[in-house]
Each structure stands twice: as structure tokens, then as C-alpha cells.
Amino acid sequence: MNRDQLQSQLNELVELAGSDRAAVDYILKVKGCAPTHSAIYKARKGSGTDYTVACYISDIKEGMNMLKQELVNAVKEQHAIVTQIDHDGTAFIEYNGQQRFLEMNDLQLQDRKVINDAYKAYTK
Fold it and tell me: What is the domain range of residue 3?
């Protein structure tokens, strides 16, 4: 992957995360330590090595997957509430006092069923 592709992918992930600070939180979840939000910002603007940017991308993706599984498990264990499912397949979940979302298309079939069943129970 060339530098422009890496930067583009990092930018997309940071946008999905919500901010540079949120991207740092995903890396922290995976590694237990993380770069500063300004290091992420600088990498998005072209600073750092390709290896560093590739590591940021890998760690952010892994952190997002970990959160996705954490949310599904919280719904299964009834520690989270599915408050809405949009027509585009976005599920909104209230968890630890925060509103989170999951893309249903990214979930395995059995996890989609868990989310749908929890939403049906919530809307009764």
C-alpha cells in the first residue's frame, strides 16, 4: 500500500472513530498504551513512517472490532439497551451511559439476531 492509500485509510478510520482522540482510545484498548492524539493528527497529514501509519490503522481496526464484540456481549448479558435500529441497519445502543452504534451488516448472523431480539424486547 502506498503512502496516499495509508493516509486515506487512516483518515477514514479516524472519521469513523469520531476524532483523533477517539482513535487513540481504540489503540489504547488494544495495546494498553497509545500515541498522542496530535501524533495521529500529524500522521493523517503525512508525518511519520509508513510502518507507523500501518500500525495505527491495524490497531484502530482491532480496537473497533473489540468494541463491537463488547457491545454485542453487553446486549446478550442485558447490560446494554438497543434503543433504535435505522432502515440502513445501524443499531443504536445505550451502554455505560453512552450512545454507541453498530453496523448490523458487519455482524455475524447470530449477533444480528441478538441485537434484533433485544430491540424487539425494548420496543414492546
Answer: 1-63
* Spans of the chain below 50 pLDDT: none
**Cα distance between residue 83 and residue 92, in whole Å:** 6
The H or E element containing residue 91 is: strand 90-95
Whether 13 is in a domain gets the answer: yes
DSSP notation for 19-87:
SHHHHHHHHHHHHS----HHHHHHHHTT-S-HHHHHHHHHHHHHHHHHHHHHHHHHHHTTSSEEEEE-T
What does residue 83 show for φ and ψ, rounded to 5 degrees?
A: -95, -20
